[in-house]
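REQUEST FORM: STRUCTURE PREDICTION
Request ID: SP-0412
Submitted by: Lab K.M.
Chain count: 1
Length (residues): 215
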Amino acid sequence: MEPAFLAEPHHIPMKLYYSPGACSLSPHICLLEAGLPFEAIKAPIRTHKLPDGSDYHAINPLGYVPLLELDDGTRLTEGPAIVQYIADLVPDKMLAPPCGSVARAQLQGWLNFTSTELHKGFAPLFNAATPADYKVLVVDTLMSRLKWLDQQLAGKPYLMGDRFTVADPYVFNVTNWAALVKVDLAGFGHLAAFRARMAGRPAVQAAMKAEGLLK
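STATUS: Completed
RESULT:
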């Protein structure tokens, strides 16, 4: 039987604007993990041209992804905020700890760490204008953050322990970029095990296939 999150819904209350392999892969995975119906709309970060020919800047003037449009037209931006909203729509799935709990603050800590230390850490390496000597400093800092992340994953299946949360896809998503910018993750065994575990999840595979990242 086809997984529930792959079933074609009769009503699509949300729209996720994404660019293949960008940080929008994280909420894409989270929506599938949540089992929520949505429409994924490709918004390439280079051209900003939507499938209907219109300019994505009309949806998000900042031009970047992700953006989640709700059924009432409300638009949410910024991945860490979007994934927490998704988790709170389906509390029974326990994709995030309860609001106001210490564990929720820890989850937010992981999302912020990924956003500021990993996501932004990789960003200069994609820019052809970044000076080579500065890239060396960027990689050194990034490797120190990845080393710490690897240590935190020792003995834990997921970032928060035994249970998957919406913080996990973001780390998986961002660390996928290492191969693209020739950052070597070979020395991080705990991170490798985490990434393999994530890659085996049906929702991760479904999101990556939908974005053309897997055959």
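NOTES: Residues 1-10 have pLDDT under 50 and may be disordered.
Reviewed by: T.R.
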